[in-house]
Every structure is written in C-alpha cells, then in structure tokens.
Amino acid sequence: MGKVPKITFVASNVESAQAAQLQLSARFGSVDPEQADIIVALGGDGFMLHTLHDTQHLKAPVYGMNRGTVGFLMNSYEDENLIGRLSIAEEEVINPLSMRAECGDGTIHHGLAINEVSLLRAGQQAAKLAISVDGKPRLDELVCDGVMVSTPAGSTAYNYSAHGPILPIGSDVLALTAVAPFRPRRWRGALLSKSSVVRIDVLEPQKRPVMAGADSQPVRDVVSVEIRSEPSVKHRILFDPGHGLEERLIREQFS
Description:
This protein is α+β, with helices and mostly antiparallel strands. The chain folds into two domains: 7-94 and 234-253, Rossmann fold (3-Layer(aba) Sandwich), CATH 3.40.50.10330; 97-229, Probable inorganic polyphosphate/atp-NAD kinase, domain 2 (Tumour Suppressor Smad4, Sandwich). The chain has five helices and 17 strands. Strand 5 (97-103) and strand 6 form a beta hairpin. The radius of gyration is 20 Å and the shape is elongated. The two termini are 35 Å apart.
C-alpha cells in the first residue's frame, strides 16, 4: 500500500473496544465508512459478523482487532504499527449463505449468514424436521433440538460445538449438522457441495414450533427454510500474514 490508507474505526459496546476506538481514531483519524480504504473493527467475533453484514455494500475490506473473547475472526490487538500491519495484511474472501424462511402466517424472511443458518426448537418438545437436498428427499423425519448448515468459516463456531466437522477454508463444502439428534439416533450429519440447495420442512409446526436464524438473527414460527450459498456476495477480511483462516482452522483441530 503506497499511501496511508483512509481508515474507519468501528467498535463494539464493551469498554475496552470503545477506549481503543477513541485512542486509534485520535492517532490515525477516522473517515466515514463510504470513504474508507479499510474498515478496522474492534471487538469480538460477534461484532465482526455484525460489521461484515453492515458493510457488505462497501468496497473496503475489514480488518478486525480482538477486544472480545475468542476472536477467531480477529487479529491480535496492538496500538502500534497499525499502518504497517495493514499494508501487508492478507485478504480472505468469504461467500455467505442465503436463507429464505417461510413462516406459518405466510410471510417470507430473507437473511445472509457468514457462519451458519440454524433451525432450533422454540418450545418444550423436540423439533421434527424433513430434509431435502437439491429437490431430493434425504431424511423424512429428524427428531432433534435443531439442525444447521455451516460454511467453512463458521465450522468452528456453533457447528463445532454441536460436534460438526471443521471444514478447510478453501473447500467448496458445507456442513449439515444436527443439534442433539434423537431419531435417527446415530445420524451424524452430512457434507454437501457448496452448490447444494438445502430445504428443511418443519413437521407439526404448531405442536413443535421452530425458529430459524441467519448468524443468530431469529425468525420465529417457521414452516420451511431454504438454504444455499450466495456467491454474488463477497465479504473481504484482512489477516496478519500467517494468521489467516486456513491456518486458524488447522490450529483449531490440533488444540
């Protein structure tokens, strides 16, 4: 980067992130997001997802610095040599998942998910779900607490907590993972092509209500959800050299 980039600093509501935003803005200046060459997000992974969604219409990539807890999508926080770090940062491009959810009242809700689209039971009883892939029925009845479709970038998040596989970042694969499956008792999920279209129908939706979420943005009383990768949307994330998503995913499997 031959010139000093125009930077926008954004921060989560936690005190350490707000303090870092004030300090860095005073030192380097902060422009409006529409004018920025780079957006620097200060917070944790949840705030990084929020920033990526909010800025997906902008050309500027996002460089995160961890002021949260896990910080899987973030770089380490340092207030020195920021311009140098930005000048050599490496870019990862992520395509989100598209969610189309139909509710019992006939309304349609759309969402984008960088990590996963999930369906979770919203009542006392387990959900009953039917799963089709590319228009072909694959599971007539899954009794469970929920199910999700995860991207490689999101495979170490909720998917991994539900015992789903970690996916290499460069793979054109999605993970279909059940949450606490009851029947079929030994069903361990599936690996699907990135081009797959997954449809999940809710069986007995009034007796067994289900909510859906794209990166945890909830839609209640869904009766069906269609999930596919959205290649037209590209999220650009910057990482310090040697600390990109591929390396992080490998490290996660040996920790």
